[in-house]
Amino acid sequence: MKTKSCIPGIALFFGALVILHAAPLAAQSTGRVEFVANVAPSGGQPEPVRHLTFYLLRKSLEDIRAEAAHSAPDAALDKFVEGLSVSPELKAWMVQHHSVRLFGEEFIKSLTPADIVAVPEFFKAYMTHNEAFRGLGFPEPKFKGKDLTSNPEKFKAQKEEYETAVRKFIAASPDSVKGMDLELVEINPYPKWVSIEGKQRQLLDARAFRLAQESYAVAHSDTDLDGQGSFAGIAPGRYWIGLIGTEAISGDVHAQWDFPVTVRQNETARVELSNLNAVRSNTTAQNSDN
Question: Among 154, 187, 220, where does a domain finish?
Fold first, then answer.
């Protein structure tokens, strides 16, 4: 009876010893991350990133965003173009150039004389914009509408001759193309596309934010007045430090990080976040152009 009664007592005793020794061993098996974040505005001095929540993640934000994108509907440009009420030629041009932006210097530079003549909307815009040059060396069409049925071969030949002459005129007078985008304002689908893309980005950001918090966040830390923060009791391994759903802003600069850090047992990893290692560091002026 004594033997039976002692066995549970001995088991409890050694169990307590195991727990007492396991606790400090578990504590020693973790590491720590200390970081400081600063952002410098254009032409200015670095400023601490104050009172923002940084996350320590088991997966990079880029990969988390890619994972979230698989479950998000795709705002396909080709599908958007297909639903536009424009000519087949303009649709083909948009798909080929993967753009629906019909204004600006970049758009004007992308146009070739062949594009302007072949796409009805471009040709109409060009002709309207250059109405004042009619009769001043600008080619005049010789084909007539009645020939389309009475003499289609003549009509086709004269039309091709006219289009060739117009292409040569445009090539010889590149300045005549400038400003023709003003005539395309009413049919320009770019604002609508930007709105669709914006809503798509918001949905994707929300999915990525939720996925990061629910599946990959190991710890979080709010920076102090000096832009400093820390993550304690972290198991050894590879992690990423970043902001989720927000940006660090200093003047005209918006910065975001997806910075890798390795945590080792009983060691403190120290990280300095700045414009130099930000994955996204741009100005509000640049943002407004995109």
Answer: 187
Cα separation of 259 and 50, whole Å?
A: 18
Angle among Cα 178, 181, 185 to the nearest 5 degrees reads 160
Supply the pTM of this predicted model.
Answer: 0.59
Q: Which of 258, 85, 266 is nearest to 186 (CA)?
A: 85
Both tokens of residue 130?
């250059």
Residues sharing a CB contact under 8 Å with residue 41, sequence separation 6 or more, in sequence order:
47, 250, 251, 252, 253
DSSP state of 43: T
Instruction: Extract the tokens encoding 156.
Output: 């086709």
CA 205 – CA 198 distance, rounded (Å) = 10
Residue 26 neighbours by CB distance under 10 Å: 11
Which residue in the block uniquely carries the two structure tokens 């000096």?
226
CB within 8 Å of 67: residues ≥ 6 apart: 59, 208, 211
The span from the CA of 41 to the CA of 36, in Å, is 17
In a domain, 3, yes or no: no
The answer to whether residue 7 is domain-embedded is no
Residues of the chain under the 70 pLDDT cut: 1-28, 72-75, 133-136, 146-147, 281-290
